[in-house]
Hints:
Shape: globular
Mean pLDDT: 91
Radius of gyration: 23 Å
CATH architecture of the largest domain: Alpha-Beta Barrel
Helix content: 25-40%
Number of helices: 12
CATH superfamily of the largest domain: Aldolase class I
Distance between the termini: 25 Å
Low-confidence stretches: 352-358
Amino acid sequence: MFKRQKWYTLTLPCEKERHTVPIFRASAGGCKTVPLFKTLLSNKCRNNCKFCSLRCERQVSRDNWKPNEFAKIAIKLWKMRKIKGVFLSSSVERDPNYTVEQEIQAIETLRRIGFTEYVHLKVMPGVDRELIKRAAELSDRIGINIEFPSKEHYEDNKLYLNFVQDIVRRLRWISKEVQKLQKEEKCKAGLDTQMVVGASDETDKEIIKISGWVYQKLKARRVYYSRFEPIKNTPLENKEPENPLREYRLYQSSFLLRDYGYKGHDFVFNNNDRLGLKEDPKFSIAKENELIVDINNAEFKELIKVPGIGLKTAQKIIDFRPIKDLSILKSVGVITKRAMPFIELNNIHQTRLSKWIN
């Protein structure tokens, strides 16, 4: 249910130096992973975010890759078949434009010396639109981190940014550039973003609302959530770490927003505007709405609302109709114990047929 160990390091010589480089096993559907050279171009940061290990007031070793140096390491790893792509981000070393210009230079050099694989770029809040355009043209995926769902949380965590101008406006720009490039069959992996969960008092309702906007209005490919863990020598070092299950429930909600047609107002929240941790969001919504779906007559969009029925399974149900009993549902992949309270088969509500299930 929770994250597996995805990082490892390699040490390799490059010219007169030896470099230890981080390799990240990125999920690629199912149990597949793809090794990426994932790094910050620089960890020298001018910002002082309360939750961050690299905040400017924290004593930490600082370093940066020169763009040409990064490109040489990446191409060497690729030719050694150690990686199948790169994921490049950065701290804000001087200002957003300088930082993104350095990233662009690194990827331009990498492309120029022959790298044809996947590139994922993170750009900085407040960066100029022309740099966003250039970064998108070089990338397969491009993103900018939201971090928190509203300006109030920015102020609380000392993110000295204008939430609407530096984040929301730039997300719109990225979305427009990406959609334009996708029509030309470029930047195929699209737009993504990320939020920190639990560093502030943000609610799940706020997170789901802005996640829905990013998916449904900006056509994002993915919203990532990173649960807060306290870091020594930061203002939040004594704050409790966030429950991993909360992060997991947000991911489940995220996929419902992206793939299943749910809207923010569909979700069930408690009195604190949080999702329940005991039930997955799809089950809670179905139970709250007393959902009953006729398996043999429902449309695809109705079938996928049933817990235990996914996108592929819903299509298989339609292909196998008429379905006469639960054994056929099980054979096409329905998790019948989850689906049973919410389905009707041959005009019989399935709670009456529990004895059919092994």
